[in-house]
């Protein structure tokens, strides 16, 4: 086996991307050669620690003498209280490197932990001063000095971002943390490890990466033209060309035992993982996202996993934007861009057949194509399916209006009624 080691993005040296060898071998090599670390703090998914030998394999490869501390499990959406627990633990052992082994909430937690440690932040009130929306002007925030290695088992792709989100325990509001926060310096991809991920999480976070691509591609045709680049479009489309067929193959492999590539699904899983890299490259180019992300950020604290917010909201937001765009307004490019993206998706392996399964020969728009793919993956398509009722819509809509991506949606969401209209279509 030969390792591929390269920058994840063409325009910046970090993070590095490693794949082709077992995750434990890659981590052990780079901790010594690249980071020269000796006091490693591991944040590991509870399910991985409980149901697999992944943590044991990592510990053996690194050497127990280099493990300064381990945190097993964190709740979804990254609670402030748990972040601060890890901050105190990591400070106590003088950790010089963080490793995340698991899903996206751990990655967000590690990013906030590293920022908090650099600023000696150990309480909710001081953590608030590090957010993108501090209550009062702050003194300069020190950048993180502790590097992070991420070994992801999902496709949410937060490990490629220099942003993080964490949820206030009392208000349930999710706060953003931006510059000078830093993402992982090294991301290790191991498709065999991801086979341990529950199917619903793997596929759902894959749709989250699809959401990154779709909202980036659609926003690039609207508003400020100087932010549009052919490279951003290329990245978004390339990512979708890997992700959508790859996710469908993963579902067929798990559900029906159909091994399209004859390798137990490893190639499809690696395609999905590499697609998520290009998805983040596209959506980190500085273009705005949209209401699927904006409402989804606030839906998360209601108990809905990150990926499933996109499964429910993305087709509905596309339909809302198409319905409310106008040929005479600043969002006149919405429908043509949606049509181009629909046609691109229909050309990808297996997609047209999936759409025919749910829509026969009826004319379909982009929202319909996305709906068919998500349904084929067996993922939820309504708020009721994830336990969110109409009695929660008002609070959800109010919180959503504060999110920058709702305001930046190609049809800006400026009134509660607009958010409620979208929510009603997925009730």
List the helices and strands and how they pair.
Elements: E1 4-7, E2 16-19, H1 23-35, E3 40-44, H2 46-51, H3 54-62, E4 67-72, H4 80-92, E5 97-102, H5 104-118, H6 124-128, E6 148-152, E7 164-167, E8 174-177, E9 186-189, H7 191-194, H8 199-219, H9 230-256, H10 266-283, H11 291-299, H12 306-324, H13 334-346, H14 351-359, H15 366-376, H16 393-400, H17 404-407, H18 416-425
Parallel strand pairs: 2-9, 3-4, 3-5, 5-6, 6-9
Antiparallel strand pairs: 1-2, 7-8
Write a structural description.
- The chain is an alpha/beta fold and 427 residues long.
- The protein has two domains: 4-191, 3-Layer(aba) Sandwich (Rossmann fold), CATH 3.40.50.1970; 198-425, Dehydroquinate synthase-like, alpha domain (Up-down Bundle).
- Helix content is 50%, strand content 10%.
- The chain has 18 helices and nine strands.
- The protein has helices at 23-35, 46-51, 54-62, 80-92, 104-118, 124-128, 191-194, 199-219, 230-256, 266-283, 291-299, 306-324, 334-346, 351-359, 366-376, 393-400, 404-407, 416-425, and strands spanning 4-7, 16-19, 40-44, 67-72, 97-102, 148-152, 164-167, 174-177, 186-189.
- The strands form two sheets. Strands 1-2-9-6-5-3-4 form a seven-stranded mixed β-sheet, with helices on both faces. It has a two-stranded antiparallel sheet with strand order 7-8.
- Helix 8 (199-219) runs antiparallel to helix 9.
- The longest helix has 27 residues, at 230-256.
- The radius of gyration is 21 Å and the shape is globular.
- Mean pLDDT is 91; it is low at 223-227.
- InterPro entries: ADH_Fe/GldA (IPR001670), ADH_Fe_C (IPR056798), Alcohol_dehydrogenase_Fe (IPR039697).
- It holds the Pfam family Fe-ADH.
């Amino acid at each position: 086996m030969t390792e591929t080691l390269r920058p994840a993005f063409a325009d910046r040296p970090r993070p590095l991307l490693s794949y082709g060898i077992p995750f434990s071998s890659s981590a052990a090599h780079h901790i010594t050669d690249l980071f020269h670390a000796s006091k490693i703090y591991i944040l590991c998914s509870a399910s991985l620690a409980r149901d697999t030998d992944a943590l044991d394999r990592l510990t053996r490869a690194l050497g127990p003498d280099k493990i300064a501390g381990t945190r097993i499990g964190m709740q979804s959406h990254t609670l402030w209280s748990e972040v601060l627990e890890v901050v105190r633990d990591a400070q106590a052992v003088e950790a010089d490197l963080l490793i995340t082994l698991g899903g996206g909430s751990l990655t967000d937690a590690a990013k906030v932990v590293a920022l908090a440690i650099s600023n000696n932040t150990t309480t909710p009130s001081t953590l608030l001063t590090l957010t993108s929306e501090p209550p009062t002007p702050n003194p300069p925030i020190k950048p993180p000095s502790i590097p992070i290695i991420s070994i992801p088992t999902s496709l949410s792709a937060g490990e490629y971002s220099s942003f993080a989100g964490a949820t206030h325990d009392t208000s349930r509001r999710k706060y953003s943390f931006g510059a000078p926060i830093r993402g992982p310096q090294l991301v290790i991809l191991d498709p065999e490890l991801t086979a341990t991920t529950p199917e619903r999480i793997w596929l759902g976070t894959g749709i989250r990466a699809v959401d990154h691509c779709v909202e980036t591609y659609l926003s690039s045709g609207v508003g400020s033209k100087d932010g549009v680049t052919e490279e951003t479009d290329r990245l978004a489309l390339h990512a979708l060309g890997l992700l959508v067929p790859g996710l469908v193959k993963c579902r067929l492999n798990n559900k029906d035992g159909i091994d399209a590539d004859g390798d137990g699904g490893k190639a499809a899983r690696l395609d999905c993982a590499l697609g998520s890299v290009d998805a983040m490259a596209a959506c980190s180019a500085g273009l705005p996202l949209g209401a699927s992300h904006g409402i989804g950020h606030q839906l998360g604290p209601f108990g809905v996993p990150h990926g499933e917010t996109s499964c429910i909201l993305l087709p509905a937001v596309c339909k809302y934007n198409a319905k409310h765009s106008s040929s005479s307004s600043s969002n006149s490019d919405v429908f043509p861009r949606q049509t181009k993206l629909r046609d691109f998706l229909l050309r990808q392996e297996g997609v047209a057949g999936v759409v025919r399964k749910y829509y026969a020969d009826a004319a379909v728009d982009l929202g319909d194509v996305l709906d068919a793919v998500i349904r084929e993956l067996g993922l939820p398509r309504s708020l009721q399916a994830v336990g969110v009722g109409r009695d929660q819509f008002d609070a959800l809509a109010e919180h959503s209006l504060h999110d920058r991506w709702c305001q930046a949606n190609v049809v800006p969401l400026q009134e509660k009624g607009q958010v409620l209209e979208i929510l009603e279509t997925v009730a």
